[in-house]
Amino acid sequence: MANVLENVGERTIEHLDYVGSLNIQWWATIRAMGRALPFVGNRYRWQATVKQVLEIGVDAMPMVSLMAICTGFILAMQGASELRRFGALHYIIDLVAVGFTRELGPLLTAIAVSGRSGSAFAAEIGTMKVTEELDSLRVMALEPVEFVLAPKYLAALISVPCLSIISNLFGILAGGLFMFLSTRLAPLLYIHYVFNSINLHDVITGLIKSVAFATIIAHVGCLEGFRVRGGPDSVGRSTTSAVVKSTFLVIVADAVFTAIFYFTVKH
Known about the structure:
It is a single chain. This protein has one domain. The protein contains 9 helices and no strands. It has helices spanning 2-32, 43-58, 61-83, 91-130, 133-139, 144-183, 187-197, 200-226, 233-266. It is globular.
């Protein structure tokens, strides 16, 4: 019994330490982000931010779009299999439009970015840690958080909401394709029904979630890289840990935000 309590206590302290480290890193990044802003910050920092936007956002567009198309088509088909019994096939439009705008668009994007960029952050910073490049930066009076993390975080804040909008668009278009194939619903009429289904609150809800997801992915990936200890094999472990932890925290954050928005609107 004592061993069980001891293990629970150790794990609890480890998790609290991890959350505390994330908060400390986030505040340090916020203070350093001014020098990573385009035009007003350090030229080399904001150029790195632009490069990260291309890597996080532009390079991920094909994968995010394909995931959204497949998910939108699957959601429409699964909804149709049940709603057809009640003669309510037109509610598929509401299901796909609202489901993607509030939930699936940001969540699919976050999972894709976590697998692509979160792991890349951990691998890049972990390699810099193993090869002592981070120590070299400190010797040159360059803060690693400002030099490495701030551009990545700012790029994630820009890229993830944009990718979420793209995911929403392609997911909703996939639902329109299904409606056209199954009921011959005209595309313009489908778009009209979509705009009647969603409202500004749904869009804002999705964008708020995507900003929170971007924060989690960037900081978990970078923290795992900063925590690398040992040789090159530890870089692989940190990469795996970054994907697992960021995906888990994204889903937890999604549940928390959904509950908050649900009870706020309800009451």
